[in-house]
Amino acid sequence: MDDIVKRAIRNIKRSEELKPYQAELIKLQKHLERYGKKIIILFDGRDASGKGGTIRRITHYMNKKHYRVIALGIPSDVQKTELHMKRYIEHFPHAGEIVLFDRSWYNRALVEPVLGFCTPKQYKKFLKRVSSNEEHFLDDGKTTLIKFYFSVSQLEQKKRFKRRKNDPLRQWKLSEVDLQAQELW
């Protein structure tokens, strides 16, 4: 019981420390609305590295009308025949909006080659074109692109996967791809 109380107090302190930053995000949302600007934020990284939790903490007090969180699954057979970026571009922000991607087009470089979801040719093509593609997104001068990469040690990832496996409230987070991640470290 003592551990639970300590953890709860620690979480409350962390929440309080975040509030000034969350207030700044609300001001940022108002600025984007007023000037018709857009922000794309990419959260990439290893499985169980804290991407989703970070997104939840960032968006906790934000105006839900002016942001979206996008977490795309494995591409469908139809999507595999289309331009790789298309499924992401379809979710880009409108004026005054922030879109947070829980994993992004960088999966093509970070995850897909390791798991065999893309060919070496597709991987090389992506690396060659990604910067110029991003420049096109930003050409309007109204869009800002922010990228985050989260990492976690193999041991910590294993602990987090074990916690997910044993916690009925977290089991939905664990997938076959996650288990492969540990094997392919």
Explain how this protein is built.
With 185 residues, the chain is an alpha/beta fold. The protein folds into 2 domains: 2-152, Rossmann fold (3-Layer(aba) Sandwich), CATH 3.40.50.300; 154-185, no CATH class. It is built from 9 helices and 4 strands; from the N terminus they run H-E-H-E-H-H-E-H-H-H-E-H-H. It has helices at 2-35, 51-59, 77-80, 86-89, 107-110, 112-115, 120-138, 154-166, 176-183; strands at 38-45, 67-70, 98-102, 143-150.
Parts with pLDDT < 50 across at least 5 consecutive residues = none
Q: How many distinct beta strands?
A: 4
- Class derived from helix and strand content: alpha/beta
How would you spell out the order of helices and strands?
A: HEHEHHEHHHEHH
State mean pLDDT (0 to 100 scale). Answer: 92
Main sheet makeup: 4 strands, parallel
Rough shape? Answer: flat
User: Helical stretch count?
Assistant: 9
What's the assembly state of these chains?
single chain
Helix content bin: 40-55%
Specify the CATH architecture of the largest domain: 3-Layer(aba) Sandwich
Tell me what portion of residues adopts beta-strand conformation.
5-15%
Q: Compute the CA-based radius of gyration.
A: 18 Å
Classify the fold: give the CATH topology of the largest domain.
Rossmann fold
Can you tag this structure with a few keywords?
185 residues; Rossmann fold; 4-stranded parallel β-sheet; 4 strands; 9 helices; alpha/beta
Give a brief rundown of this model:
The protein is 54% helix and 14% strand. It has 185 residues and is an alpha/beta fold. The protein folds into two domains: 2-152, P-loop containing nucleotide triphosphate hydrolases (Rossmann fold, 3-Layer(aba) Sandwich), CATH 3.40.50; 154-185, no CATH class.
